[in-house]
C-alpha cells in the first residue's frame, strides 16, 4: 500500500512524498523505496530527501532538469560539430511515468547503459538516472513499448554544451538540439543552427518520437535504422 502524500515543508522548499514502491532494479540502493519529489528548487533539500530515502548523490546522475529543445537547420551545422558521435538505442518500458533504458555505443569504447525515470513536466522536471550493465539494457530493449535510434553529438556553444541528435529509422533526416540548464531562467547563447524552440510541444519529446517510430514500423516504414 502506498502512503498518502504528506508534504514536508522543512526540506528546502521541496514537497517530499513517500514512501512509494521503487520501480528501479533491486540492485539499486535505497532499500526498494524511493521518494517522489514535486518542486523546482532547493538543491540542499533534495540532497537530504534522497539521502533519507537511502540514496547517495553518486547514485543519482541528475535530479532536476531544465531542458530547452529546438529544431535544427542541418545545413548550418559546421562539419567539425559532427564528429565522434555516440550511437544511442533507447527504449521505453513505460511512458506514464517515463521509464527509459538507453544504450550508448562509441567507437573504441565499451557500451554504456542507463535506466532513467522521469517525473511529469516539460521545461522543469525531476529525473533520476542510474548506470546499469549494458548486457542487461540490451535484454530490456525488446521489452519496451517503443524504441528509437539516434546519433548524438556534443557541441559547445558559449557556456553550455548542446546535445545535437540525428534520428534514424523511420525518423531518418530529423534532428533536434537540446541544452540542459541549471535553472529555468538561466540565460544561454542560441547557436546559429537552431530554428524554432519546441520545448513545450509534446510532439517533439523522445517518447512521442519513439511511439511515432513504432507506429511507422507497424505500417512497414522502416527507413535506415
Structural class: mainly beta
Number of domains: 2
Beta fraction:
35-45%
Sheet with the most strands: spatial strand order: 3-7-6-5-4-8-9-10
Could you name the CATH class of the largest domain?
A: Mainly Beta
Stretches where pLDDT is under 50 for at least 5 consecutive residues are 1-51, 53-62
In round numbers, the mean pLDDT is 77
Q: Give the name of the CATH architecture of the largest domain.
A: Beta Barrel
Q: What Rg is obtained from the alpha carbons, in whole angstroms? A: 18 Å
Number of H/I helices:
3
Q: What's the order of the H and E elements?
A: EEHEEEEEHEEEEH
Biggest sheet, open or closed, and with what strands and sense?
A: 8 strands, antiparallel, barrel
Q: Tell me, what's the shape?
A: globular
Helix content: 10-25%
- The name CATH uses for the topology of the largest domain is Hypothetical Protein Pfu-838710-001
Distance between the termini: 43 Å
Count the strands?
Answer: 11
Name the CATH superfamily assignment of the largest domain.
Hypothetical Protein Pfu-838710-001
Amino acid at each position: 500500500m502506498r502512503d498518502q502524500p504528506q508534504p514536508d515543508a522543512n526540506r528546502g522548499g521541496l514537497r517530499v512524498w513517500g514512501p512509494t514502491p521503487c520501480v528501479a532494479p533491486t540492485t539499486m540502493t535505497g532499500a526498494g523505496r524511493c521518494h517522489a519529489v514535486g518542486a523546482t528548487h532547493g538543491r540542499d533539500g533534495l540532497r537530504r530527501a534522497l539521502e533519507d530515502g537511502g540514496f547517495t548523490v553518486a547514485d543519482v546522475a541528475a535530479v532536476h532538469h531544465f531542458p530547452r529543445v529546438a529544431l535544427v537547420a542541418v545545413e548550418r551545422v559546421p562539419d567539425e560539430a559532427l564528429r565522434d558521435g555516440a550511437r544511442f538505442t533507447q527504449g521505453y518500458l513505460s511512458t506514464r511515468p517515463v521509464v527509459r533504458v538507453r544504450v550508448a555505443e562509441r567507437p573504441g569504447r565499451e557500451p554504456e547503459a542507463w535506466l532513467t525515470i522521469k517525473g511529469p513536466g516539460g521545461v522543469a522536471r525531476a529525473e533520476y538516472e542510474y548506470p546499469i550493465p549494458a548486457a542487461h539494457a540490451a535484454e530490456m530493449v525488446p521489452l519496451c513499448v517503443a524504441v528509437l535510434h539516434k546519433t548524438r553529438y556534443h557541441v559547445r556553444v558559449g557556456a553550455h554544451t548542446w546535445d545535437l541528435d540525428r534520428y534514424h529509422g523511420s525518423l531518418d533526416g530529423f534532428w533536434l538540439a537540446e541544452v540542459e540548464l541549471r535553472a529555468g531562467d538561466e540565460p544561454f547563447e542560441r547557436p546559429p543552427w537552431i530554428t524554432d524552440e519546441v520545448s513545450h510541444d509534446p510532439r517533439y519529446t523522445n517518447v512521442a518520437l519513439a511511439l511515432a517510430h513504432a507506429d511507422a514500423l507497424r505500417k512497414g516504414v522502416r527507413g535506415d535504422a
